[in-house]
């Protein structure tokens, strides 16, 4: 199983996502005793250098909010406007490109067109994440797969308390999460992410049963999940349910997952 370190960006700062209530997100201050002070590059380096995390998942919350009709009126970032460039007077795209140099990067930046998908790749992302929250049609998803290659596209099945978040997708109201995942598979994506925002950052545990149901309708695709991870027992259960990778943030930030845990998960045969 792979662990992917999550960086949620708002107003150029790395923020702590909690329960999907974006208006309440605040900058990440410390991770495992190391000062972060909202700096996404410091967070990326901490994941890689202190924990041995080999991949990053970056969610550009401002870009997502700009496309989601259901988004909150504001993503709070103390002392920084939600639409400002990052601290240090570099452009937002430069920040994203910088993060891509730290480790291979999965980027959810409100991608809703093939053109934007190509831009994300040009910034250095190895994987383009297309979220249900900002998707307008499965035809668009198929076009994105054609534009950048199916194996570089991950569909994020965005949920809240198990219900799909799809303000721009007219057909979503009549489709279950399993049906939406199957439609994404038919559109050609190489990976599916199961992400329930209500579980993010609150250590309530992942929805193992939901992951198993999505696994059943996405044979042959990489399956990723995130949100609610409490420790290694949750990771073991997710692996048994067919999950290939897990997005992690809070469990690393507060020490529920240690560098030793990450090493054992990446190299399970190493018993030291």
Q: Describe it for me?
A:
- It is built from ten helices and 13 strands.
- It has 272 residues and is α/β, with parallel strands linked by helices.
- The chain has a single domain (2-265), classed as Aldolase class I (TIM Barrel).
- Strands 1-6-7-8-9-11-12-13 form an eight-stranded parallel beta barrel, surrounded by nine helices.
- A hairpin with a 2-residue loop joins strand 9 and strand 10 (163-164).
- The chain is globular and about 45 Å long.
Secondary structure blueprint with pairings:
Blueprint: E1 2-10, E2 13-16, E3 26-27, E4 30-31, E5 34-35, H1 40-51, E6 55-60, H2 61-67, H3 92-102, E7 105-108, H4 114-122, E8 127-131, H5 138-148, E9 153-160, E10 163-164, H6 177-187, E11 191-196, H7 208-217, E12 222-226, H8 232-240, E13 245-248, H9 250-253, H10 259-266
Parallel strand pairs: 1-6, 1-13, 6-7, 7-8, 8-9, 9-11, 11-12, 12-13
Antiparallel strand pairs: 1-2, 2-3, 4-5, 9-10
Helix pairs in contact: 1-3, 4-5, 5-6
Question: Can you give keywords for this protein?
Answer:
272 residues, 34% helix, two-stranded antiparallel ribbon, TIM Barrel, eight-stranded parallel β-barrel, single chain, alpha/beta
């Amino acid at each position: 199983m792979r662990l992917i370190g999550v960086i949620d960006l708002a107003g150029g700062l790395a923020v702590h996502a909690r329960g999907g209530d974006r208006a309440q997100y605040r900058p990440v201050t410390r991770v495992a005793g190391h000062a972060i002070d909202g700096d996404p590059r410091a967070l990326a380096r901490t994941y890689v250098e202190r924990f041995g995390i080999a991949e990053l998942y970056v969610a550009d919350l401002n870009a997502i909010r700009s496309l989601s009709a259901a988004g909150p009126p504001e993503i709070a970032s103390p002392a920084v406007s939600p639409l400002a460039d990052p601290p240090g007077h570099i452009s937002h795209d430069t920040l994203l490109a910088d993060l891509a140099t730290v480790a291979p990067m999965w980027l959810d930046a409100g991608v809703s067109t093939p053109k934007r998908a190509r831009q994300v790749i040009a910034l250095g992302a190895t994987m383009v994440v297309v979220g249900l929250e900002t998707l307008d049609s499965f035809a668009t998803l198929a076009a994105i797969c054609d534009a950048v290659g199916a194996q570089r596209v991950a569909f994020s099945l965005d949920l809240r308390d198990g219900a799909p978040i799809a303000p721009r997708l007219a057909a979503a109201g009549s489709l279950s999460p399993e049906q939406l995942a199957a439609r994404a598979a038919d559109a050609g994506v190489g990976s599916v992410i199961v992400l329930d925002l209500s579980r993010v950052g609150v250590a309530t545990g992942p929805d193992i049963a939901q992951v198993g149901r999505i696994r059943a309708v996405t044979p042959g695709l990489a399956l990723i999940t995130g949100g609610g991870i409490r420790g290694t027992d949750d990771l073991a259960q997710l692996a048994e349910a067919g999950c290939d990778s897990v997005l992690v943030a809070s469990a690393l930030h507060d020490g529920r997952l240690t560098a030793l845990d990450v090493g054992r998960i990446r190299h399970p045969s190493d018993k030291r």
